[in-house]
Amino acid sequence: MVSALAQAIWLPFARAHSGLTMSGQIFFPPVIDGRIDPCEWFEASAKPFTVRGTAYSGTLYMMNDGQNLYIALSIDGDVDLAGSDGFAIYFDNAHAGGTSHQQGDDLMYAFGDSTFRDHFYDAGTSSFPQDVNYGGSCDGLASASRQGTSNHFEVSHPLDSVDNAHDFSLSIGQTVGFGIVLGINGYSYFLDYEGLGRGYPYDPSSYANYVISALPVYSGYAVIDAGTGAIYFIWGAAKYWISSMTAFYSYGFNTVGLKSATPGELALPSGFELNGNNPLLPLRSPTGSLVGDVATGAIYYAVEGKLYHVTTMTAFYGYGFQLGWIKWVPNSYVIYLAATYGTGYDLDGASPLPPIVGARGFGYIAVDGTTGAIYFFYGRKCWISSMTAYYAYGFNTVGLRAATAAELALPSGFDLNGNDPLPPSITPTGGLIGDIGTGAIYYVVRGVLYHITTPSAFLGYGFQWTWVKWVPSSYIAYLIAMYGTGYSLDGITSLPWP
User: Fold this and answer.
1) Cα separations (Å) of 409 from 207, 368, 392, 405?
2) Per-residue confidence band for 4, with pLDDT thresholds at 50, 70 and 90
3) pLDDT of residue 19
């Protein structure tokens, strides 16, 4: 297929590094197993495509975390998956946008037999030899499989491998040009993005763009208005008033990690009120949970952000709900959910509860019918370690469905014990977490863990033991793998925040 892909059938195209730009960030990396699982790729940037003059179509997916670029292709219209089927992806490493490649520009191949090949542009020979033949390494993975009537391909490649002479070196915010050639049944086609043809692989000026997305740091931080004493959670372009100190501590904040608000932060528009029962952004009330409006007394069943009004207490009890399951939230939060995600039909006792199926950007729960284990699904399956933790997150047993075989086959994320936040949130900046496996305590700043080395250092910084959220070791391992560790806090070094 390599020679075929190098002599592709050229389709109409539009010039310049303009037009299509893709970018996608992920919380959990996908497993490269040749199956494009919606639970793993829902955060990807996705673009449907057609191949003009053929019956072939499909979807391109691209996303990154802090370590790798992930690419997936689903192809429809091919009757089988041959070992020589696949795709090649050419890169303009420096995003120079010239009409010819530069030394070291990357080229990767993924084949139907799950072979991965890593090539680079050699200016001396004006060709793309394999890295391994020029003293380099093959950096990446590929896998392919037949899924129903579609062919699925998945690829991962480091953003910055040790083979700098033959691979791109990309960091957050950088843009790389790319062009894709499909190989199907011995013929090759340059990918056509629904009328936005993207040119010729030896002409990087015709490529599409991928922007390396910032690693999602879903933590936010708390500030205090020195004039009024009001405390706000800063997230994105808004401030969210934390209505009590009880709520403040329940979210994992502490007064040591509380910084004075700047004029710019105080000038931010106000979001909804946070009273300890509604979750910190970017989460919504979990799918399958009950929220009550403290101002009106209205009770709602939340499914993927949408609110379904439970019209009467007779209907409420008829569905099997219990009063202790309700999270009573501020009216401003109910208004936010209704405006952002909409309202569903009334739950009057006769109409059925909406099913919990899971959708893009929303986690959901399901139970293993064999073992009884309950998982929160968000790209991976996160085991909820106790019913106490289960209820602490706002879940209830009504509407809890059995997990499918495909869901149970997902890789495991970190355990959820009620103290660590549901994905995609992480411990807020300025929070304290303790590893229940090792006893180590960390100060968290934008996901990065700063180890507090001794009890005397802990107390010397002004922390209190009750402020520590004791979390599973698997959650600590996730934070370290994704965000890394900072310097040790020995009582002499200053805190990294505020």
Assistant:
1) 37, 11, 26, 6
2) very low
3) 60
Answer for the pair 287, 356: CB distance below 8 angstroms, yes or no.
yes
Other C-beta atoms closer than 10 Å to the C-beta of 484 total 11
Distance of CA 293 to the CA centre of its chain: 30
3-state SS, residue 299:
strand
Termini Cα distance of the chain? 55
- Residue 474 predicted with pLDDT over 90: yes
pTM of the model: 0.80
Residues 61 and 153 in one domain: yes
Residue 326: is its pLDDT beyond 50? Answer: yes
- Report how far residue 47's alpha carbon sits from residue 45's, in angstroms, rounded to the nearest whole number: 7
Q: What are phi and psi of 476, to 5 degrees?
A: -60, -45
131, HSE (Cβ side, Cα atoms, 13 Å): 24
Band of residue 189 on the pLDDT scale cut at 50, 70, 90: confident
Residue 465: its pLDDT value, please? 97
Strand 57-64 and strand 68-76: pairing? antiparallel
What is the model's pLDDT at position 200?
A: 67
Question: Closest Cα partner for 297 from 288, 280, 279, 309?
Answer: 309
Calculate mean pLDDT across residues 28-42.
87
Q: CA 307 from chain center: how many Å?
A: 24
Contacts of 125 (CB under 8 A, 6+ apart): none
Which H helix or E strand runs over 180?
strand 175-184
Each residue's pLDDT tens digit, 409-441: 888 999 999 999 999 889 999 999 999 999 999
Closest CA to 429 of 251, 191, 201: 251
CATH of the domain at 12: 2.60.40.1190
3-class secondary structure, 184: strand
Residues 6+ apart with CB under 8 A from 206: 13, 14, 15, 16, 179, 198, 199, 200
Does residue 31 sit within a domain? Answer: yes
319 Rama class: left (phi>0) / alpha (psi -120 to 50) / beta = alpha
| DSSP SS3 for 114 | coil
Distance of alpha carbon 339 from alpha carbon 353, whole angstroms: 21
Task: Identify the residue whose tokens are 């010729």.
Answer: 200
Backbone torsions φ then ψ of 114, nearest 5 degrees: 70, 20
Do the beta carbons of residue 437 and residue 260 sit within 8 Å? no
Q: Which domain holds residue 24?
A: 2-211
Q: Mean pLDDT of all residues in the chain?
A: 90
Domain end position, chosen among 185, 211, 237: 211
Mean pLDDT, residues 310-338 taken together: 97
Alpha-carbon gap, residue 492 to 498, rounded angstroms? 16
> How many folded domains does the chain comprise?
3
Scanning the structure block, which residue is given the tokens 């129903």?
Answer: 148
